[in-house]
Amino acid sequence: MVIRYLEILEAIAETGTFTGAAKKLYITQSAVSHAVAELEKQTGTALFERLPKGATLTRCGVSLLEESRSILTACRNLDRRINHLEENTPVNIVSSITIASFLLPEILSEWNTSFPKIQLSVRVASADAALDRLQRGKADIAFWEGAAPKGNFHTILLGSYRLCAACAPDFELPGHSITPDCLCGYPLLLREPGSAIRDTLDNVLALANLKAEPVWESVNSLALIKAAEAGLGITVLPEKLLEDSLHLKKLRLIDLDKMKMENQMLALFHKDKYITKSLQILIDCLNNKNDVYSL
């Protein structure tokens, strides 16, 4: 059934004449008559009583118009929104766990203040899983830690963070500085393989032909912090995540000899990605603030 025919049916009912419907819809009277004839052919019944001074709906005509109201309303609502579909489409974000822990909330808080009508959908995952979702088109943009991955990506540098080793204040160490070899001899509380934090640590140790054998592995950095506070070992995490525990003197930093560890924070999106208006606004915001987020 043609939607235009239903609009003509409604217009005749509202104006009371075929001529009035034609004027209301800016079409010819013959087009109105043709539409009514087609509708009556499809329904197999008369929809109007033709009177000397106009036309009124038959009971079947009234029934058809009532059922058509919701369709016409939906079509008109869509017509009003159709030029703004991009603005109304959420931007799908995937973020690595660490960035989601301290940087992303800051970014999105500013976003909600500046662009409250543009929706964002966020999925938090490990760095590897975040990149996988981006590559499979499950996300429009990814927040990633570490060196820029290989691939057909645009990258926006958001800043960087320093990785630090920490333990409980009463955890026994031979002084405040330890070598990579010495570090591997202690109980280690580390993020899981595939996370940017773990990859950075593993790469630094590999340069010294060493490999970490953690007693704890977790995707949850807070769980590792609590374990370190309890004196269960040494954890290696971004300094930003350790701030509260250091301030409360529940943890202390360990000087790592010849182990400087830092991760970049990047926003990634495909070079051949269709950029919606909403996504472009987010990209512009990140480009404008990429010198503000460094930690």
Structure report:
Strand 8, helix 10 (196-207) and strand 9 form a beta-alpha-beta unit. It contains 13 helices and 12 strands. The protein folds into 3 domains: 3-85, Arc Repressor Mutant, subunit A (Orthogonal Bundle); 92-157 and 267-289, Periplasmic binding protein-like II (D-Maltodextrin-Binding Protein, domain 2); 161-263, D-Maltodextrin-Binding Protein, domain 2, CATH 3.40.190. Mean pLDDT is 89; it is low at 291-295. With 295 residues, it is α/β, with parallel strands linked by helices. 46% of the residues lie in helices and 23% in strands. Strands 3, 4, 5, 6, 7, 8, 9, 10, 11 and 12 form a 10-stranded mixed β-sheet that branches. It has a two-stranded antiparallel ribbon with strand order 1-2. It is rod-shaped and about 105 Å long.
Average of pLDDT:
89
Could you give a short account of the major beta sheet?
10 strands, mixed
Taking pLDDT < 50 over at least 5 consecutive residues as the criterion, the unreliable ranges are: 291-295
**CATH-scheme architecture of the largest domain:** 3-Layer(aba) Sandwich
- Round the Cα radius of gyration to an integer and report it: 32 Å
Run of helices and strands:
HHHEEHHEHHEHEEEHEHEHEHEEH
DSSP helix fraction: 40-55%
- The fourth-level CATH homologous superfamily of the largest domain is Periplasmic binding protein-like II
N/C terminus separation: 61 Å
Please provide the count of β strands.
12
CATH topology of the largest domain: D-Maltodextrin-Binding Protein, domain 2
The DSSP helix count reads 13
Overall body shape: rod-shaped
The structure class reads alpha/beta
| Total individual domains | 3
Task: Classify the beta-strand content into a percent band.
Answer: 15-25%
| The level-1 CATH class of the largest domain | Alpha Beta
